[in-house]
Amino acid sequence: MDQEIRDFYAQGFERERLHVGGNGRLEFLRTQEVVRRFAGPRSRVLDVGGATGVHAAWLARDGHDVLVVDPVPSHVEVAGALPGVSAVVGDARDLPDGPFDVVLLFGPLYHLTDRADRLRAWREACRVVRPGGVVIGRFASLFDGLRKDFPLDPRYRDVVAHAVRTGQHLPPADTPWFTTAYFHRPDEAAGEAREAGLDVVGTYAVESAAWLPSNADLDVVYADPRRLEYLMWALRQVEQEESVLGASSHLLTAARR
After folding, report:
1. pLDDT category, 17, cuts 50, 70, 90?
2. Mean pLDDT throughout 56-76?
3. Per DSSP, what are the bridge partners of residue 103?
4. β-bridge partners, 168
5. What band does 135 get if pLDDT is binned at 50, 70 and 90?
6. What are the domain boundaries of the chain?
7. pTM of the complete model
8. In 3D, which of 126, 242, 244, 128 has the Cα closest to residue 192?
9. Topology of domain 3-137+184-256, per CATH?
């Protein structure tokens, strides 16, 4: 992992990001909902790039046997202390032997910026069984600028333009922006999975366009069970609608061996 990516995660963002509300909470709820469709009872799950175990924790509570593999030792220490979760330091391009019923490739598919490395990760997942992967939509940095003060820095426009053109998100080191990543177009991850020898089940918009309102507006929805139920229902209606996939901050591509 590049040092700037290690430094970014060393700040501890992953411990709380998906639980504190706003669009992080939406990402968590929708990812949980989609993953549960593919995790049969008491599955053996390999969570690659699983960070501090934010998904491993609920998977273990659901009754699954979960192993987290992550390149950041501090993440592994936290994840390994969770009930029902084991964790080891490792690399998505060289996974522990299976068999696993489900393999999650959430972080690696956007932090491996070289396509050959992403294909190695897909092939490793194929080797040890069935992968599902969350990837960031190509236009995430462009839309993120609509919600934050990033565009006040004149360098942000160049970062966004480069990401839209090439998929490579390369922020300057002295900024608070998301770290080095590759932003897929909606059809790219499925193409990579097929090239790795997998049968693609589908690509799902995690948040669709619902992540664009302010965090405060989303928190109002979370506080009202009726509003939240409607939001989740609405997102299911368009989760595979090709015309809106590119508006989602995250995409999940599920494939089977």
Report:
1. confident
2. 95
3. 46, 131
4. 182
5. low
6. 3-137+184-256
7. 0.90
8. 126
9. Rossmann fold (3.40.50)
